[in-house]
Every structure is written in C-alpha cells, then in structure tokens.
Amino acid sequence: MAAEVVLEEVKVFGLAAQDDEEAAVAEKLAELCMFYRLKENELADELVAFAAGKQVSLLTADFLNIFEHEALNKRPTKSHKRKENRYSGVKDINTIQELLDVEEEEENLLDAYTTPSKGSQKRAMTTPENPRSKRTVSTRSPHLLFSPSCFSPSATPSQKYTSRGSQGEVVTSFGSVQGTSWSGNGGSTANAKLFSPAEDCLTKRYKYMFQKLFENREVFACKIEELGEALKEHYRIEEFSSLIVPVQEPVTVLGQIGCDSNGKLNAKSVILEGDQEHSSGGQVPVDVSELAEYSLFPGQVVVMEGTNSTGGQLVASKLYEGVPLPFHQPTSPAEEPEQQMVLVACGPYTTSDSITYDPLVDLIEVINKSRPDVCILLGPFLDAKHTQVENCQLTASFEDVFKMCMKLIIENTRSAGSRLVIVPSLRDVHHDYIYPQPPFSCYELSKEDKQRVLFVSDPCTLEINGVIFGLTSTDLLFHMGAEEISRSASVLDRFSRILKHVLTQRSYYPLYPPAEEINIDYENFYHYAQLPVTPDVLITPSDLRYFIKDILGCICMNPGRLTKGQVGGTYGRLYVQQQVYREDRKSPCIAAQVVRI
Asked: What is the mean pLDDT of residues 419-427?
C-alpha cells in the first residue's frame, strides 16, 4: 500500500508512526496520496522536510492534519495552458510534443461516455486501494453456499481474506454504546419506505443522453435562485447587487463558485458566476486573500460581500455561511416507538483477486445472527473495476451474475426476517451508468419477498419508522475532497467540511463540474438528487477512512467498503428511535458503530 511505502521512505530519516496510532497514520498517509495526487516518494520528501522544520520524530494523526493544513494545502497547482493559439506561431520540439499530448487527450474524449469496464485501454481505471491483481489464479473449489464456478473459469477464495484477523472488531463508535447488545427484532416492527410520494421519487428507468445545454443552464439558474432566496431570508439581506458592475462601496452578491481553467481549484483561480436576475450570468475573478476563513469548491452557491471597483475583480471581505433545510417533524406516535437496529454495508462484496462472494456470505451470517430490523445494502454488487470483469473472464452475462447475487442475499436472509433496502452504484457493471441512477429492475421478486425487499434509486431519501435516512452510493467525499480548498484559523476536519457543504447546499452531489467518471442527467438531477429535508442519518460510503460524525445535528456515517482490495473491510450498524418533537431537538440515532467483517 501507499502508506507502507511512505513509512519505509521516512524511516530512513528517523521518522516513525507513534505506536498507538499506526493504523490512523497509515490511513491518513494513503488519503493524502489520493487527495493531492502525490507519488509515495513525493509525499515522503514533503513530510520529511516539514517534520525537520517542526523538530518532530513521531508521526501522529494530529501532526499529519497540521502537515496537510500548513504544507500540502499551500502547494502551487499547475494551470493548464490556453489552447486558443496552439496552432499559431513558430514551434520548437517542446511545443510540438505539447500539441501531440493535447491531440491524444482529445482522442480519448469518447472514453468519458463509456462505462469504467469499457474505458480507455491506455490508462486503466483502477483505484489506488484496488490495484489490478497480476497473480495467476488457481482452480480450487469455491464456497459451497455460493459457487461462481458456473460463470467464472477461475473462482478461487482470496487467501488474504480468509486468513484475516480482528473479525468483529469495533473500529469507531458514536453515542451510548457501552454495554449495548446489538440485536434487532428481525423486521417485525420495521417500516422502511420512500420519504417522498412515489411521483416525486425515481422509481423506474428513464431515457438519457438527450440533454440540451439551455435546459442544463435552467437547472443551474434555479439552484442558484433557490439557495439565494434561502440565504437572503435567513440573513435578512435587503437586496443582491450585480457582481459585474463597477462600484466603490461594498456590495452583497449571489453566485456559483467556479475555476478559471481546467485545472484544480486554488486560491488564485476562483471565479464567481452570478445569477441571471442580478448579474445576467456574468463571471468575475474573486480575490479571497482578505477572508479569514473559507471553504470553497466548484459548483458551490455562495453569498459574498465585497468590492468590485473596476468591474474586473471582486475582492471578497465576507462569506455568508450556508443554511441547511429543517429536519422532518414526524407526527407524535400513539405509543412509545420501538428502537430499531439498522445494518449498513457497501460493496464490493468480492475481493479484487477472486470472484467468490465469501465476504457477502460472512455478512449474511452476521445478519442471521443479529437479526437487524433493516439492512441497507449499497452497490456495487458486481464491480465494474474487478479484474475478471474488466478482462471479460466471466462465462455468464453480468446480469445473470447479479441475479445470482441477489438470490443469495434474499433467500438466505428470509429466516432473519430483516427488511432489505438495495441501492445501486455507478460501479454496477450491468446497470445504467447515469446519475441519478434508477433502481434495479432486472430481478423479479417473489410474492413473499415483495413486502420485505425494497429496490431504491441512488440517491434516495428513506423513512424508517419516522427516522429519515439519506442514502447515496456515490463517493462524493473523495470527489469533493479532491476539489475543495479551504483556509481556517484552526485545523479543521476535511470530512466535516464536505458533509456540511452537502447539507447546506441541499444536494446529494453539489460538485460541478462532476468527477470525470460520473455522467449526470441534470434535468432528472434537479428532481431526484436534492435533499427534501435535512436527514436524521446520512450514509455516504467512500474509499476513504470510515467515520461517524454529528454534522449540524445530522449523524453522518461512512461505513467503509465490505472489502478493500484483497482484504476484508468494514460495515456499519445503528440503533435509531423516533423522538417526540420538542424545541430542543434530540437526535434519533442512539448509538452507532463501524465493525470489521
């Protein structure tokens, strides 16, 4: 792993992880490599130099947070060269090579419209945690409960997964978990349903790739206008001004954050695109040097105060804090509501070096043992990034493999009685590669399972006995974390900032433009990917480190993935109970944990 290589590099210079924080330091180093797109030796060089300046010899998670805040956040980013005049003037050999590189990038444009498994052959789309396995797989017999030998010629249980330790270890907790016995009632009193009426939810497939640019523009204009009205009412702002008209006095403007190039956003490349009503969609660069604190990302709708004396640049002096939606206020129950246990797991459900579903079988054993009231299972169920999927080594169709996976889950959890909520993922190779993503429709439920199993879209807002859950399988933490910039007087937690943005921007995916691997239908995005209320619990699975956080009263959980590469991962479990509405709101999430499979 990247963290191990970095630790080996810095060990030469007398740096080592503190004994009781080795796991946390390794997780943070891997995260920094991904976020800042650094090679292991580059990160090691930066870390050694910073530690020498601070006279530190032991690495801790807190020190790495300071290192990120004071060193990595201030690294200059390379801006992309303008392409308007690339064919004019005299060319030297370096310029010609640059042109060839640009031409090659343009040739790969069509790769953005294909699924990850059918992407570019020149650059494999694999995550740093899941490198493509080069080991030759032998032909041993797979697990008896689920035999994929019928659809894969090389189905071998993962050696690293079967020999793992610390099964069932609790890695993080929230709330009153002391002495808690984790067992449910098997769904006997659970009622899991969509929060919004059926006509306001994405319940079936739709046609996509028919977007018009002016329709997309209308979506962005409506989003800016709606959030602007909420901020205007909350802060009692009299009127917004135009951001493109020169004025000598401070004005309050409304707009959307953008970047002045195709590169990563930084403090020198921030632009503000104004709303249609006051600024006619005009854009101006923003100078954020006078702001004591800020956290910005492309696509963020903001209200700023500043001066624009020339009409060419806005010097920001104040950034208004975003405002979340109110929480849902359920009607008071006739009797005391029962406590519900909810289990949450996110795919992949196979290791990267095997197509056997051993991790999923182990999860089913956990479900049958603890009998949770509701199980929320998020994709991918057949991962488009799996080596055998990418290399087309399965002898059955992707859809058939998925159906066998669903059959395994549904039939083997009947005895537990738990309600099942199935959420798709953009990495499900057989499903529509569009966001928002419709529910799975290829698996036919039997009559007895229709009351117990619920297929929902990604994203989705769910109500479980009066408690509101926000669900998405898209890795928005990683996507937004790679684009966000911030400045703060104190060391702030990146995850907390991103989750706060999700709640205050009132959207399951507020980043624009989106990550390259995501195709968004903005007309349906406007209808189905907005938060109807602030959820009581927000589930945001990610390749990044697991956590449970209280953000603005919403309990946010990253349960991790059930497998990470060739080894076992984690899943989450919660106790929730509907609370009687009072002025001093109490969270319905009583306790939560993230556990190793």
From this structure: 97
